[in-house]
Amino acid sequence: MPPRKKKAAPKAKAPAKIAAKRAPPAKAEPASKRSKTGGAKQAPAAKAKAQRSKPAAKPAAPPSLDHVHKNITNEELLSDLSLTNYLQNSLYPKIKSKKSLDNKTLSVITAVLQHTLANSPSPPQLLSFLDDDAEAELVSDVVLAIIPDPKLLSHLLRTSYTSDEHNTLVRAALSSTFDSILSHIPESILEYFVAKALIPNPKPPNKLSSAFHSSVQTFISSSCVDSDFVSLFQSLHSTPSFSDISKAYCMALNITSKVPDLASLDGAYDVYTLQRIGFKYYPEKLTRLGLMGRIEGLEKELSLLTADELTDLGSRLRLIAPESEYEKVELLALFMHTFNPSVKPPARSIYPTVQNLSTTQTLPYLPTQYVDLKHYIDVNYKAYSQEYWYDLKSDMANHVQRTQPRAVYNQDGGTEDVEASVEFAGWSKYVTPSRDFKVSKVGRPRLGRVEPDTVEATVVVDLAQYNFGMRAEWDDGWQDSYVYLININPSKIPEGDKAVKDPTIKDIGVERVRGAKVLGVTDVDGNVVGNRWDDQQKRQPVSAVRHIRLELSAAQFHLDTIKNNLFIYKNFNLLMRRDGVNNNHPSILETLNHITSEVEEGKLLPSWLHDVFLGYGNVDDASFTGAKMKRYAEITPGVTKPSDFIDFGSSFKSVNHLKASFPGFKVTSTSSGAGYSLRVNNEKKTVEAKLYETKETPAVPKFTPVQISAIRSGLNPGLTMVVGPPGTGKTDTAVSIITNLFRSFPTQRTLLVTHSNAALNDLFEKIMATGVVDERYMIRLGSGEKDLNIESSHDFTKQGRVKYTLQKREKLLMEVQSLSESLGVSNVLERGAGGLSSYTCETAMLFYTHHIQARIQLFFSKLKGGDEGVGGLFPFGGFFGGRVVQEVEDAKGLFEELKSMFDELEDFRAFELMRSMGKRTDYLMTKQAKIVACTVTHAALARQRLIELGFNYDSIVVEEAGQMLEVENFVPLLLQKNTGGSNRLKRVCLFGDHHQLPPIIKNRDLSTKANMDMSFFTRMIRLGIKHYTLDSQGRAREDMSKLYGWRYGGLASLDCVKEGRYLKANAGLVHDFQIIDVEDYEGRGEHAPTPHYIQNLGEAEYVVAMFQYMVLIGYDPKRISILTTYNGQKDLIKDVLQSRCRNRIFGALPTVSTVDKFQGQQNDYVLLSLVRTKNVGHLRDVRRLVVALSRAKLGLYVFCRKANFERCSDLKESLDLLGKNGGEGKLELVMGEGYGGVERASGAEVEEGKKYVCEKLEDLGKVVHSLQAQVLASS
């Protein structure tokens, strides 16, 4: 990546009057470059002789201003125009009475001063020619004209602030123009000396980082910086009082966030920390500080403290050192600037208005590189907002139109003077009439803000129009949901022939829209409605009426207030909800708003990731092999150092597999066992292996060298990116990284993030299968947790984890009870009610300390050496029953089992102090769980809550990263609060494939013109960040993998797809994969009942007939999936299946999905319908084709208009391979074959007379009809 450019210091704007008259100063030519002929001075002797030969003459008159200006670069002229004889005696008297100067005069003054400074060994005060009678505006003009020259500015500041000869007007001018002065002082010097002012005598090892100290010293010593600046600030800093420059320090604080030590002060610039600390230590004087709602009263409140008390408060906030000696006015200025001296503008509203939904917006552009995090957030916020608005407005128009709003007038008629109301003749699943909207609470603005802290409201809806199923759907979706309040204006509702066919929201009378977050819902009796408000008692609603408590956008409410638009909150008459999949946009935007306010406090991302994330720096900076990450590993606890052994667990099947995984390396191994711990030296090309015994199941399938390299990278600190072509085992690689991190760093937490619930299913199942992670350390967050297809004993939802913990606790306590009774410490009669254990976790631990450990110590003290008499001395024989103890090692193993049981009870001890489900789930999530998983949607929803709980994690593994938007990758990186100025995150592992489908963008303009479909994963690939491309697939038949393998430069096939069922032909079918040409059916190909809802009945019938044929000859319906490229076709195929396969002989219906939704999934056999007959459509995107052709393991059958797709050159490679089987596009069957009894090899010739070619759909229909009759006859 190109090096990051240094940002120029922002220039403060001068007053308009002065700025218009200021001219750039003319540069004086250095003396070394003057001409040696024209314009040179005479030698002293010659000059004296000439003077003696001529009579004395009158002094020449000074040149005019015009003459000087025209010859401003003439060194001879400037040498004659000294500061005294020209500026003071000639020019100044002429301009003294003026209030402003023109550009010509300012240019001359600047040129003379530059020349004077360059050629005088001890230059005087530069503005000494100005006396106290000059106009203040004139002095300001002169100051503003000369400060762009660094030498003039530094000399001016030095003489004005440190000399005893002060000019009052100059000092006043400098004070009034500090904004402009600061813009011309080198930024690094300001940062350095402001840091020195706030932290006196900083020492690199303790305060400022050594790297920062070194870089500033290098900058100061470079030739591009005037050394006068350094001496100026050093002299000012050393003075006992610096009241004259305190303003400069305070103003410069806006850049001190870049100083590492200042940026690391956790909470130092947090207004709420000021309120909390101030009220804690000075409650009597600062009684109102905690209630302060406006900034104006802050200075007055702090003024009640003395200078010593302000110093104490400042040191507690880590703004200044405790021994600092500052004036009270200086301290107040510092506090006021630090804690928001000016009111910040209101945050952006996360909800759209009608204007947003009905007007065309300027498209942002998402680049590959960003200036800083603020730029990143701003651009992505705009892009994401527009995608949200585009998606919402079509939904809103559709569902509001379904309610059929109508204007209703009174009996006097429908004149304009008559007030009208709205009634709704129709209904919609997602929109219902609302009433009684009322703003119930408007909070006071927070300190430094203008918008209210919170705005709450209530609204009433009646769900009586819905059946019980739909009503339950509304009630189940309230929590974490967003709704939209809509105002329909009756006067704008179209009537009769004025109705629009494809309306916008304004076309159907929508006048106002406001969004809100649901806080709670009750019925008419106040019973809480919804199934997930854990801490409140829930009852069956007594009616269909719902009272909804809402949180409105405070920013939008403030805007409505100042525009006098609060009347609109009285006129809402519809409430709209959206389903969970489409309802996450506001949560993302709200999270970005929170992050925006946090950006100013310091770096949010880890330092090692920051520049790479933005697109700058060295491409290897975030790689564990890079020099930067090696240094990071050496000084950071909790990570693997370059010289350390790395635990790979059971990632290798044998030592030979280990050696094959490191080609070109010399591998040495010690010991034996199935576990491997490795130390790899890239420079020496050596691998040291320590083997150990483990009960883990070796990895299946065998990892390839590339996978091992990716696992090694993931276990080290830094950024790991893995490109996983279809079937190459990226999920297995991710599981290995997760389990090995758990084994190597048992106290650290790993966050697992995916785009879909299906991907979480796959990961959790594979993690559990390894046996490495005990299930009590795993938890799943989010509303989609119920979709996890895990067997009932492994319920990973929050509620499921609590239930599991309570059950496991009870089971372990019963074990303790049995152990106690076997030792005679208690008896059966002492058990609790129902025969339950009488122990709690607390008493169990006391029992372990006083009885178990004591007996273990006594056992070892009685041993005489060796194994003699071990069985008789073993104290827990009664508890372990038939377990034979003959050796000391046997006893130690059983002692370890007891310790493990009591350790687990210690983990559950906190549950005895918690009674609510919410507190228990929070405890599990933040204290016990080591692998926490969620989707990107829930990450945004839960971020603020997780930060409040103190949630933290050390590693993050992101699956399906190529399908996530930029912000969806960004938010999961920020689910914890920085502590001590540093970010705890040590490892980021991204898994994806930029050759498969990108993020789904519904707004085509944002996708094609704004670059929004470029994921963070893809952006990093384009920037050249190091990544690992897996190169061997283990999913599909070897010849089938070639259909898409060409996109990756070819894929090798693992041994697992070169044996068994992969070598046998598909029963009843000549080819394992084939393209089937589908002609018009009933005189029609593709058609669209509604815009963009494309269907093809011929292909739908053909696909369903193919499914019927396969099931009738013995295929399992669950092993067949039907895919298509359009939602309209998906719905049509489902309808045809319902119609054609109602007979019980077809069993369960197959999965029917679009290609886009099926990404990340697979099945043995795939029937694919491409739908289009007029053009290729969006299959022209080769990434979609790759997904479509890579879902099948054993059989792929593509139904399409063959000639239409063959015209597309982008698809030629794959279609040519498909066309090699059944080149005419006719489906070829093998008659008489049944599933399970086929020994025919894949690709083998079919016996003569068994092949049957279906020329058209009707031919396959006849075969299906015949087979169906045979099955029915035999049943």
Automatic annotation (TrEMBL):
SUPFAM superfamilies: P-loop containing nucleoside triphosphate hydrolases. Residues 11-29, 40-59 have a biased composition (Low complexity). Residues 1-67 are annotated as: Disordered. Pfam families: AAA_11, AAA_12, Aquarius_N_2nd. Residues 1-10 have a biased composition (Basic residues). GO terms for molecular function: helicase activity; mRNA binding. One of its GO terms (cellular component) is catalytic step 2 spliceosome. Residues 420-578 form the RNA helicase aquarius beta-barrel domain. Residues 1012-1202 form the DNA2/NAM7 helicase-like C-terminal domain. Residues 707-1003 form the DNA2/NAM7 helicase helicase domain. InterPro entries: Aquarius_b-barrel, DNA2/NAM7-like, DNA2/NAM7-like_C, DNA2/NAM7_AAA_11, P-loop_NTPase, SF1_C_Upf1. This is P-loop containing nucleoside triphosphate hydrolase protein. It comes from Triparma laevis f. longispina.
